[in-house]
Each structure stands twice: as C-alpha cells, then as structure tokens.
Amino acid sequence: MIAVISLFTAIVLDLFVIKSKLITRKVFWTSYAIILPFQLLTNWWLTSRNIVMYNEATIFGLRIASAPIEDLLFGFALVLSVLSMWIFWGRRAPSDER
After folding, report:
1. Residue 69 belongs to domain spanning
2. In a domain, 77, yes or no
3. How far is CA 31 from CA 26, 38, 59, in A?
4. Residue 1: its pLDDT value, please?
5. pTM
6. Distance (Å, rounded) from C-alpha 22 to C-alpha 72?
C-alpha cells in the first residue's frame, strides 16, 4: 500500500505541484527505460541471494526478477521525484548559476 501511495504522491508532485510534467515527456520515458534494467538487475541480485528479504504477508505477491512489484513502484516514484525536484531547484537557481 505504501508503494502505491508513494507512486501517487510522485505523480501528483510532478503534474500538479512542481508542474514539470515529466511523465508526459518522451525524454523521461527514455531515461526510465535506461534505468529500469539496472533496477531489475539490482533487485534480482539482492532478493535472489536473500540479502534483502520480504515478509510475504506485507507485499502484493507479484514478483518481477525475484523482487516484489513494490520495488518497481518505489523505484519509479524515486526517479520521478528526484528528477522533478531537479527541475524545481533548477528553476529557482539564480540565473548566473544556471
């Protein structure tokens, strides 16, 4: 449930608070397509080696590359939030620092 809330929060932040509208841009999805395989590889490594373990009662149950789907939701929310904040703080920087 927390993963869904974080995803929703990141989308609201992007579209309505910061108004960067990254999720509507091709460049964002291209960037995410580059990031996703590395996230899947890392998730697979950590979960298949039992370095990171999840209580089955606290996850949705669907796994991709050995990791719960929540990992992908959190990862997407993290990437979207960080890039949105990058744009936000870039807009606020004095013109001589841009």
Report:
1. 2-93
2. yes
3. 9, 12, 27
4. 86
5. 0.86
6. 18
Report pLDDT for 92: 83
**pLDDT bucket at 98, cuts 50 / 70 / 90:** low
Burial of 57 by CB count in 10 Å (0-12 exposed, 13-18 middle, 19+ buried)?
A: exposed
- Residues 19-51: tens digit of each pLDDT: 999 999 999 999 999 999 999 999 999 999 999
Query: Contact 45/73 with Cβ under 8 angstroms?
Result: no
Question: What pLDDT shows up at residue 25?
Answer: 98
Strand, helix or coil for residue 55: coil
Are the CB atoms for 26 and 34 separated by under 8 Å? no
Proportion of the chain in helix, strand, coil states, percent, rounded to 5:
75, 5, 20
Determine the Cα angle at 27 with ends 21 and 33, to 5°: 110
What is the number of structural domains in the chain? 1
98 assigned to some structural domain:
no
Q: Please enumerate in sequence order all residues whose Cβ is within 8 A of that of 49, keeping only pairs 6 or more positions apart, or say none.
A: none
